[in-house]
Structures are given as structure tokens and as C-alpha cells.
């Protein structure tokens, strides 16, 4: 069933756990994520990034409709989230495309500008009934992201975060605590002490980005320390591509895309299943 993101995050807050939010690029991603969620009997967030929308020719509706349809048919609660939005017009259009939440990404901008633009985005989001997440303390690692206004290795400061949340009015905060986007090896080292300090200081749920690079034990520790939404994208790209490569290498005469896409979907589902088994 298609449910609001706010409901899934509230559930994670209630149980002191974390909901997985997994990036959708193709229909097969959505199918793989929902299949894993159904097998585990756990709700999940399907997130479509602005980059993925760009990949689909800048068209928001087709991929959103696919995600919403797969979510609606799922036997577990599934929500649709628009991720890493930098284009303000997308915030206003999200609800109509059946998203119930957006992540507004001004994390690479200077602090004052981040604050002003995020506060404005939060007003637009709330006026459209959307739950909104924003980022403070740039997570980094996105290949075509503008140069960060922050130095590499920067962490979210709890005091600054408290002021940021109250001045922007966002519903959740993505924090920089040691993860980085697009890691293909799971070598990140999280500052769980900082996660705990941020949780104690803030009254909104915390979000971990770049979770593909975080080892299982640290993902669990992060959730136990206060992360309530765990964003994973690259790990599915790794699973999908590895699988496609192996299938194609095994048969040079193969031409039916369903053969390798089915294997890829299966592989992605396995990755999500593993993630769901780790998160409390
Ligand atoms: O918002 C999406 C996540 O932060 C994905 O990060 O691709 O490094 O797992 P990742
Ligand atoms: Zn992210």
C-alpha cells in the first residue's frame, strides 16, 4: 500500500529503529525493493532522486507513476520520496506526482543561503502537504555536485543543527556523521557519539545519507544511536551491474533484456533484504 513517508518515519521513531529509503532508477529497482520489503514484512521508502528524474529526460511523472503503482500493489506499507531536490519547482510539483515527501538539498550552499532557501522550500512543501527533509553539514561524494562550501570531512554541529531546524521548519535532518555518497566499498567510519548528541539536541528524526559505504554493524549502531531513515542507492547499482555483467559474460548470444534484468532485479532484492535484516 502507498502510505505517507511521515507514517513510516514515525513508525521508526516509535520503535527506536530506522526505515530504509532506497533509490529507484528503473522499474526493476522499485520491484526489487518492494519484493524484499514484502519478504521481510517491513515497510520501506522508495526514493527517486532529482538526478534519476534527469536521467529520465527531466520528466518527473513517468518514473514517479511507476514507483507509486508498485508501492500501491505492495503487501507492506511503501512511500514515495523525492530525493536531493535542488530545483525549487520540483517541490511544488511533487505532491501531484504522488510523492508524500521531499529532501531539499541546499547542503552544498553557504550556510545563510542554505537556510533561506530551505526555509522557503519547507513553506512550499508544507503548503502542499509534503514532509520535508534537508541537509546540514554536506555529506558529499556526489559526482556532479557543486563544490562544497564546507571542507571535506566536516561534521554536523549539534548547536548549529538545532538553530537550522527551528529556523527552517523542516521535518527531518540529514546529518554529516562520517558517511559519503557513492561509496562502492563499505569502509565508512561513523561517529555514533555525534549521532547520539544530535538526537539528544534535536526534536526531528535524523537521516543518514550515503549508507552504501557503511558496514552492517555500523548501520545498526547508527540506528541504535538515533538515525531513523537510512538512504541507500549505490549498493543497488553495484548489485545490478555486477549481475548484468556476469550474465552477459556467460552468454554472447543473449539478446533478451529480460534475462539479465531479471537477474539484476533478483540481485538488488538480495541487497535490500540484507539491509532490512540489519536495521532495527
Ligand atoms: O539519498 C540517497 C543516498 O544518500 C544514497 O547514497 O548511493 O551512497 O548509498 P549512496
Ligand atoms: Zn543522499
TrEMBL record:
Source taxon at top rank: Bacteria
Pfam family, one: F_bP_aldolase
Enzyme class: lyase
Keyword Lyase: yes
GO molecular-function term, one example from the UniProt record: fructose-bisphosphate aldolase activity
EC assignment: 4.1.2.13
SUPFAM superfamilies cross-referenced by the UniProt entry: Aldolase
Keyword set, alphabetical order: Lyase
Cofactor(s) for this UniProt protein: Zn(2+)
Protein name per Swiss-Prot or TrEMBL: Class II fructose-bisphosphate aldolase
Amino acid at each position: 500500500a502507498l502510505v505517507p513517508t511521515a507514517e513510516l518515519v514515525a513508525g521508526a521513531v516509535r520503535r527506536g529503529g530506522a526505515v530504509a529509503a532506497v533509490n529507484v532508477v528503473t522499474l526493476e529497482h522499485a520491484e526489487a525493493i518492494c519484493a524484499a520489503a514484502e519478504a521481510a514484512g517491513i515497510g520501506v521508502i522508495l526514493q527517486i532522486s532529482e538526478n534519476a528524474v534527469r536521467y529520465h529526460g527531466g520528466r518527473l511523472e513517468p518514473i514517479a507513476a511507476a514507483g507509486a503503482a508498485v508501492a500501491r500493489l505492495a503487501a507492506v506499507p511503501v512511500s514515495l520520496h523525492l530525493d536531493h531536490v535542488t530545483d525549487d519547482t520540483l517541490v511544488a510539483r511533487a505532491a501531484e506526482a504522488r510523492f508524500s515527501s521531499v529532501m531539499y538539498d541546499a547542503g552544498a550552499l553557504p550556510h545563510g543561503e542554505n537556510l533561506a532557501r530551505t526555509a522557503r522550500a519547507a513553506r512550499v512543501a508544507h503548503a502542499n502537504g509534503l514532509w520535508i527533509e534537508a541537509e546540514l553539514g554536506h555529506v558529499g561524494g556526489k559526482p556532479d555536485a557543486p563544490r562544497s562550501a564546507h571542507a571535506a570531512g566536516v561534521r554536523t554541529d549539534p548547536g548549529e543543527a538545532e538553530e537550522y531546524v527551528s529556523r527552517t521548519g523542516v521535518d527531518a535532518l540529514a546529518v554529516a556523521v562520517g558517511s559519503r555518497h557513492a561509496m562502492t566499498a563499505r569502509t565508512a567510519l561513523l561517529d555514533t557519539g555525534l549521532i547520539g548528541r544530535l538526537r539528544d539536541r534535536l526534536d526531528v528524526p535524523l537521516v543518514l545519507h550515503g549508507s552504501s559505504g557503511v558496514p552492517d554493524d555500523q548501520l545498526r549502531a547508527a540506528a541504535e544511536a538515533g538515525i531513523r531513515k537510512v538512504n541507500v542507492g549505490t549498493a543497488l547499482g553495484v548489485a545490478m551491474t555486477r549481475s548484468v555483467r556476469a550474465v552477459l559474460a556467460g552468454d554472447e548470444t543473449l539478446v533478451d533484456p529480460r534475462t539479465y534484468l531479471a537477474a539484476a532485479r533478483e540481485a538488488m532484492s538480495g541487497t535490500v533484504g540484507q539491509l532490512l535484516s540489519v536495521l532495527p
